[in-house]
Amino acid sequence: MAVLREEARRCVVWFGEPASEERAGLAKAGWLVRVADANTQSGVGMRNNDTVVALADLRQGDPTSADAMALLMADHPWLPWVALLSPEMPAHEPLIDRILEASIEYFTTPVDVDRLVETLARIGGGQPPAPEPGDIGVTGRSEAIRAVVASIRKYAPVELPVLITGETGTGKEVAARALHGLSARAERPFAAINCGALPPNLVQSELFGHERGAFTGANARRIGHFETAAGGTVFLDEVGDLPLDAQTSLLRFLQEGTLERVGSSQLIKLDVRVLAATHVDLEKAVEQGRFREDLYYRLNVLRLRMPALREREDDVVTLAQRFLDAFREQHSSHARAFSASARRAMLDFAWPGNVRELLNRVQRAAVVAEDALISMDDLDLADVLTKQTARSSLGNTRVAAERDAVIACLRESRFNVSECARRLKVSRVTIYRLCKKHQLALDELR
Q1: Which residues are registered as beta bridge partners of 10?
Q2: What is the rounded distance in angstroms from the CA atom of residue 92 to the CA atom of residue 29?
Q3: Which of 91, 121, 140, 182 could disulfide-pair with 156, CB 3.0 to 4.6 Å?
Q4: Which residue ranges does the record assign to the Sigma-54 factor interaction domain (predicted)?
Q5: Which helix or strand (DSSP H or E) is residue 308 part of?
Q6: Beta strand pairing call for 81-85 and 233-237
């Protein structure tokens, strides 16, 4: 008689109290959650063919439970352990340090459930879930980044130019690579070119190639970036820095799909999709005669704006943790997560360098951190935030003083706008503008 073999399960033995969304997230990923109590010192109680990961949940901060958890972890060294602590819990205490040393991974609240699922899959012998196609290289859950992902999904399959705008460090090249990766050209070359870094006298040669003898030093034919990317995608970063002659050649390529190597009169037919990016105002550059208007309209068929990191508050801590995880996969580091003060500091900081600055600060902090939790000082944010707060306070003081001065002058002049303008030595239009700026209704002030 055949013996039916029970199917193996993937189980998390959760010593503590999982939140409903945490339990639901694990269940969705195929993990069975069994809640246990470390104080009872009960066994794991799973079948031999199960994949088991133990989770030490110490978010309640109970010293007795923490001591019991440490003993339990010592009694079950064969289990892969994941620790879950409150950010306020002092990681440098000997007991907590013992728990961290026994843990393969470490999480603080609020828990990134997606990252927890990925971690469990990795240490439990499985594979992390594959990312959704629209998430290729673009990380985040904020409304701002969701809008970007939605646009990328729409634009990727369309054979039209895309102009990507945004501040330096917002991930314009990441978006360009996502557009390429989701397009029918994904298996063909992707050429990223920083137009601002090209020598002005060699821009045409770099982009479109040259023939032997085209100029002094041209000892052999050179294939340009466009020909190298035949069938694929060319990404022109800082396209606003292109000199006018190169703009003319680029316009001809976008209109006719042909190019000429420098020193040749032979037209070369080429199939390449062009994506362009800029952090400058191209409309203003057109007005000033620094950028061709017809080229601007050719590039600006589809437009994708990358939001600044300060517009993505919901993503800051998640991005920082993912950068830290990626760093730890390549390098040894004591750091496993961020302290509560570091999280607050990251949310309060304006991030003028955007995602690139966040990445650099996290990598530096991962190197210098002595504890499991990265501090505000490790991120080098303490002094910067103090200066930022001082600047913000000064700005608020100036705004308040300006508002008070306008109200006082209006009252002294009996709300005669012309008389108020004369006393403040500004135009009547300026008085109306200041009233609008400070939301002052003249009828209500009288």
Answers
A1: 51
A2: 33
A3: 182
A4: 138-367
A5: none
A6: unpaired
What's residue 204's pLDDT?
A: 80
Distance, in Å, from the CA atom of 191 to the CA atom of 180, rounded to the nearest integer, reads 10
CA–CA gap between residue 333 and residue 340 (Å, rounded)? 19
Q: Are 252 and 258 in contact (CB under 8 A)?
A: yes
Higher pLDDT, 94 or 130: 94
Counting Cβ atoms within 10 Å, is residue 63 exposed (0-12), middle (13-18) or buried (19+)? Answer: exposed
Q: Which residues contact 100 (CB under 8 A, 6 or more apart)?
A: 83, 91, 106, 336, 372
**Number of C-beta neighbours around residue 165 at 10 A:** 18
Q: What is the DSSP string of 12-46?
A: EEEES---HHHHHHHHHTTPEEEEE-GGGT-----
Query: Model confidence over 118-138: pLDDT tens digits?
Result: 888 877 655 444 444 444 568
Alpha-carbon distance 64 to 207, whole Å?
Answer: 67
What is the predicted pLDDT for the residue at 92? 63
Q: Across the strands, what pairs with 313?
A: none
- 3-class SS at 193? strand
pLDDT at 148 over 70: yes
Nearest Cα to Cα of residue 174 among 152, 155, 147:
152
Q: Among residues 150, 188, 210, which one has the least CA distance to residue 273?
A: 188
- Could you give the CA distance from residue 313 to residue 308 in angstroms, rounded to a whole number? 10
Scan for tokens 């420098």, then name that residue: 262
Let me know how long the chain is: 446
Q: Spell out the residues 6+ positions from residue 397 whose beta carbon is closer than 8 angstroms to its own.
A: none
Q: Which residues contact 118 (CB under 8 A, 6 or more apart)?
A: 128, 129
Query: Which element (helix H / strand E) includes 160?
Result: none
Does residue 2 have a pLDDT over 60?
Answer: no
Beta bridge partners of 74: none
* pLDDT above 80 for 5: no
Q: Pick the most confident of 124-133, 153-162, 261-270.
A: 153-162
Mean pLDDT of 416-445: 80
